[in-house]
Amino acid sequence: MFTVIEADGTGALEARPAPDGRLLAPLDRSLLGWERKPHGWCRGEACLPAFRAADAETPDGVDVAAFAALVGKVAVIDVGERAVAFADGAGPFGGGLTVEEAPDFTLDGVTLSDLRGRKVAIVFWASWCGCRYDLPAWRERHEALERHGLTVLTVALDRSAEDARPWIEGARGAGGAPPHPAVVDTEGLVAELYNVINVPTVVWVDEKGRIARPQDTQAATDLFRSMNGLDAEKSYRDLRRWVLEDDAGVAADRVAEHLRVPTDEERRARAHARLAVWLLREGRAEAARPHLDAAAALAPHDLAIRRGLMPLTGQDPFGDGYFALRDELENAGIPIHRPLPDEE
Predict the structure, then answer these.
(1) At how many degrees (to 10) do helices 161-170 and 135-145 cross?
(2) Is 211 a domain residue?
(3) Residue 140: inside a domain, yes or no?
């Protein structure tokens, strides 16, 4: 049996390695929720025709990695650790990031689509980022604009909820009640859906569930402006205009132009990272190292992976490891912060 690691948890897969390196699963068992039928593989009303599935089938079983690609997944297999991790891929069955519909999710009892009819500012942050100090300011923005139809939804990209909770609790108002929904993305589900590669990142979702402003590096205070060049007052001014003046947000053509859709390399990096996280939590740090290295090689710019996993590897995300990473990216000409360009 192989352990299956996905964003929504772990499971088991009956499979065996083939001499050529492929991982083969039985043809008569479900795979990734898909069932083999005479006319193809089906999951609910979606079906992969038999002639297309034939590319992944062999007399000895179905090639797990090839099948995953056909149904919109990326698979990373570690035969030695008897584990396989999946991340969303491309194609008609894969997870797609588009302007027309913001990806829905449910996390910590919060469902994005339940906020339909309101404008939503999704604020991605982490305890390993200085942006943790911005949480009270985001609370203030929510309190100022909530009655006008805005909800601030904060998403912590911490791999341990215990790391994020003190900062969430510390940002509560005087009454102590949570002023807005705040969730912790321990499995990287929401970060994957929105292709968030660093924090702080903000995404706007309008009343109809469409992306009104794509991934934008924003700060709610000027605490680190000398380092990141981000103007907190400008971000608040833009937010107020969007909410109070019923502005449509960023023009649809600019949203489409600047929406960062994950590349194949970024998707595979997330699968390697997912496998590494599971191995680290299982106490198998040495086995996790090749997957951490693979993720860094595939997506060197993805600080949500590289810096975000430092606490799990015993590194200080504010220490020498982080500054070495900053130097590496700067020397390679890779920007750490990616604010939305000003409209010309």
Answers:
(1) 60
(2) yes
(3) yes
Domain final position from 36, 64, 94: 94
Q: Is residue 272 included in any domain, yes or no? A: no
Mean per-residue pLDDT pooled into runs of 10, the chain (344 residues)? 93 94 94 93 92 93 96 95 91 72 95 97 97 96 96 97 94 75 96 96 96 95 92 95 79 86 95 97 97 98 96 94 95 94 73
Check if the beta carbon of residue 81 is closer than 8 Å to that of residue 45: no
Boundary residue ending a domain (258, 277, 305)? 258
> Are 118 and 86 within one domain?
no
Cα(344)–Cα(337) distance, rounded to whole angstroms? 20
CB atoms within 10 A of CB 303: 26
Cα dist. 45→73, 74, 102, 329 in Å? Answer: 18, 22, 22, 45
- Measured in residues, the chain has a length of 344
Please state whether beta strands 83-88 and 2-6 pair in parallel, antiparallel, or not at all (unpaired). Answer: parallel
Q: What is the pLDDT of residue 250?
A: 72
Query: For 79-108, b where at least 16 C-beta lie within 10 A, e where not — what string?
Result: eebebbbbbbbbeebbbbbebeebbebebe
Same domain (yes/no): 125, 199: yes
Which residue reads 């937010």 in tokens? Answer: 239
Identify the pLDDT of residue 266.
96
pTM of the model: 0.93
State how far the Cα of 206 lies from the Cα of 198, in Å rounded to an integer: 23
Domain check: are 163 and 193 in the same one? yes
Report CA-CA distances (Å) from 83 to 20, 86, 109: 18, 10, 29
Question: Domain check: are 181 and 120 in the same one?
Answer: yes
CB atoms within 10 A of CB 44: 8
Helices (H) and strands (E) in the chain, counts: 12, 18
